[in-house]
Amino acid sequence: MSSKIQTSVKKPYRDILGSTIAFHIPTFQRAYNWKPKQISQLWESVVTNPNQYYIGNIVVVQHSTENVQSGYLVIDGQQRLTTLSLFLIAIRNYIIQDKEKDKKKQQLQKHKDMIEELESSLVFSTSFSEDSKRIKLIFSKSNLSEIYTKLIYGKNINKSNLDEAQKKFVNNLNYISQLLRDYLKDESKKSIKQSIYELREKILDLEFIIIECCNESDVYQIFEGLNSTGLELSVVDLVKNTVFRRIKDSDTSSLKNAEKIWEEMENDFELSKLNLFPKFLRHQWISYFGYINNSQLYDAIKLKLDNIYDSKDILAFVTQMHEDAQMYIALRTSDARYFRDIILKRTKESTIEKYLSVFALLDSDQIFEVLLAYCRKFILIEEYTKKQFSNDLKNLWNLGLMIKIVSSVNPSKYEKKFADR
């Protein structure tokens, strides 16, 4: 990977924020997914260490398109960059609340100055116009961009309208805000203003090594290569990057279409249950090719993709995956409209629709790999009659119900039998 690195330089976080360079979080990156444990570890690193504490690497590549402002594409480091931004937003929000308390004390100017300083750390202006303000950390996925922008500008948020990925931002900000309140209580011997100032300085003094890679065509290969250097990528991340890397650099149309389809697929899972995506990849594979365990899944998918040489065929692979994902989500969420419009398009059979609607009640992952295969077969193969389909669903329901009642049965013992159906 070293041959693909152009420059490597140490920079404090304040220099990163102080520049007019934007940092883009691309579509091939996983969603922001840090948990409280990881946030607490970063928080402790900030508050317990001296200033100029080294916090890790940021791997980037120069990025500029007609539709996107120039800057860096972040290959590695978005979780820390996002969390540090939330640290600053939490401090800003705390000061705003403190400002309301201090209205009678005529100390509004000090609050105003600190608020403006914090907000200017997260946005920059290309001119003196308010309309020229640009957020420095830019999320390519629209749902993430929307929630992050609202948090940056302190907009009201209706949590009931958020998807799972957006809720992660809000929940993590709430958690960080509690960490901040607890920290300021422990710093009671100092003034609130002094404690906040020192905390802000510690955050801004954190040091990164910025590793700039040579060109954008190597992005997917570099990102996948990070897995062998200690970065834990999920099977979803690995498959996504393998898919994009298999598309020829010259075929920009196929690459853009594949990225768009994959983003739609991720959004579909985020709107339902984010943790279904890795399960779906395995269940989809089993529905086509038979049993495989989690540890073998990525290698099997990669081998299949490595034997596809035409970018259009890779795009067809992604398109089929998206169609299967939509069916999988509908089956897991008992989406009656999808059943009627897609699966039962050639026959409006109420008995089959009832069967399809109740499988989610079994709460059995293993059921859905077989159910996906049956439904796809019914859609694609006319010789597979509605009577055969109905009988197969009935037998599968009875088997799943029996397994649920006999709770002592280990799912791994009967999954191989399901995969052979």
Topology (SSEs and partners):
Blueprint: E1 5-12, H1 13-18, E2 22-25, H2 36-48, E3 54-63, E4 71-76, H3 78-101, H4 108-122, E5 123-125, E6 133-135, E7 137-139, H5 142-152, H6 164-186, H7 192-205, E8 207-213, H8 219-225, H9 235-246, H10 252-272, H11 276-289, H12 294-306, H13 311-333, H14 336-343, H15 350-358, H16 365-380, H17 386-405, H18 411-419
Parallel strand pairs: 2-4, 2-7, 3-8
Antiparallel strand pairs: 1-8, 3-4, 5-6
Descriptive report:
Helices cover 61% and strands 10% of the residues. The longest helix is centred in the first third of the chain and has 24 residues, at 78-101. The strands form 2 sheets. Strands 1-8-3-4-2-7 form a 6-stranded mixed β-sheet, with helices on both faces. Strands 5-6 form a two-stranded antiparallel ribbon. It has helices spanning 13-18, 36-48, 78-101, 108-122, 142-152, 164-186, 192-205, 219-225, 235-246, 252-272, 276-289, 294-306, 311-333, 336-343, 350-358, 365-380, 386-405, 411-419, and strands at residues 5-12, 22-25, 54-63, 71-76, 123-125, 133-135, 137-139, 207-213. It is elongated, with a radius of gyration of 25 Å. It has 421 residues and is an alpha/beta fold. The chain is built from 18 helices and 8 strands.
